[in-house]
Amino acid sequence: MTAETKRLCLSLKGFEPFLSIGGFWSMKIKSCLTVFIATGLLLFLCPWRLGAFTVTVRDVVTGEEKADVSFGLVNGDSPDPYASAGVYLDVGHSAEANRSLYLFTDNRLLDSVVTGPGLLTPGIHPPLPFYFQQNNNVLSPPPLFNSSTENLWTPLLDASEPVFADDTVKNARALLLPGDEKRSIVYLGINVAPGDVGGDYRSHLVVEEFSNTNDADGPLVVHQEFHDLIYLRTVTPGFVATMTDDSSVVSATFCYRLNGHPVAPNWAMISGELKRDSGNEKRWIFTAEIDPLLITPDLLGPMDYKFIGVDADGNVGQSPEYHANMITENESADRPLSEAGGVFSVALGDPRLPGIALDLPSGGVVSAGLMQMGIDRVDTLVPLNGNYPFRLFNFSPEGVRFLTPAMVHVPYSDNNPRDNVLDGTSIPVSDLRVFWFDGYAWRLVGGVLDSVNRRIKFSTTHLGSFGLFQYAGSLTAEDVRPKERVLTPNGDNKNDEAVFSALDPLVGAFTIEIVDIRGVVVRELSNVNVWNGRNDNGEVVESGTYIYHVTGQGLTVTGMIAVAR
Known about the structure:
Largest sheet: 11 strands, mixed
Strand content: 35-45%
Distance between the termini: 81 Å
Structural class: mainly beta
Radius of gyration: 32 Å
Number of helices: 2
Mean pLDDT: 83
Helix content: under 10%
Low-confidence stretches: 11-51, 260-264
């Protein structure tokens, strides 16, 4: 059995000329606060708590909390190249018994070929010796660090040194001893030998709590849950979980059952791939894939799955049991719409990849309702210029309109993103455009390529059917003109609005002016590609003929449209 450890990690980096601070939590095992040192030398820190111990930076004179550690100006050519920080670390120990705190560096965690104790530089200059002195109480005046007092300070031990594994050495050089108030006051210092300063210095400072009680907990298993998966027979679905443990994760299993009709009583198990996270030595990434040939049509439907991890001591950790729904083309996943808006998504083929998503701003709909998201067979609707779409996305019901545009993301298939070519074709993904089917014909919407996530994003003010087609041409006036020639804005969802579908604010800014026959501007739209037959006061305009002026995205387009009340 291994003892439990918890760490507070402080990454120190040197660069000119200013200080920067950042930090993040990493599950239950480790919390890391990124610290930067400038050649000057500036070090980091701000109050931080992990588990049962705390670390606070305080001014050596006033005791006030500080957000950085300054060594002042350090000159490598100075006859006395010693510097102590103008602050100290106020370390609060756990009140629990059988716990010890250690202070050391772990420069193995640096992204560098150089390792060892001290502040390191990848250049030709040697490391800068890094020291600390601990006391049970605050000293006034603070302890001096110079050639005559150097023997009273302790060089920080580094985890890369062979002696680090020797408990006797570690207890002598790294153990923090609490006083009556369960505190350790830690002063920091550096020694810059003449002529040795130069370059970018880094170190990874660690405050570690060590428990002498045995660790009986298994790995902490975390997974980003999904609720619906559209099954594609040509795509291998994969499932990922992270497993964090104080010792090591030695095995992992993905368990699933495709219930179909009746419910299958037994779990199928996959060992998958388990590898250590390069950015966190306490975390492992587990990936499992299901052979799509094993997923027969009768097994589609509700899906249960979970992850199990085992550490080096035989302790077992398990995720919750997740429940998803596996559907096919021409089936849809239900998502509730409300005035609160939100991001609605459905996994497509592989849950590891970004799927279909619709991001609706708050207040985007007037009342609550149910939206269906999915894909249809590409030959469900009429072709465009003799070609069916590469993929056909369905957002229904058709009559739903948004008060503010929603952002939609639709994925395309490119399993080799380096070639930027649509799978199974020679078509560059940069030629892909979104078209909307208005019930009669396809209209250009456009969209913006997101090659990182392999999706096209576009904005829309309505639900409907959207297809991915090749379109390598430039935007034309005919693309912009609305197909509606006469509006009857009576709320029956038939010819209630004119849609300038090819104008997408994601592509560039545009304006649409609606002018009556007297030359009076009755409506001005900015980055909104729908006119609903109303003026700027929200009133339905009088019956008659109106002129629209479109400006933006490299075009100026003028045309006429009639309104019949």
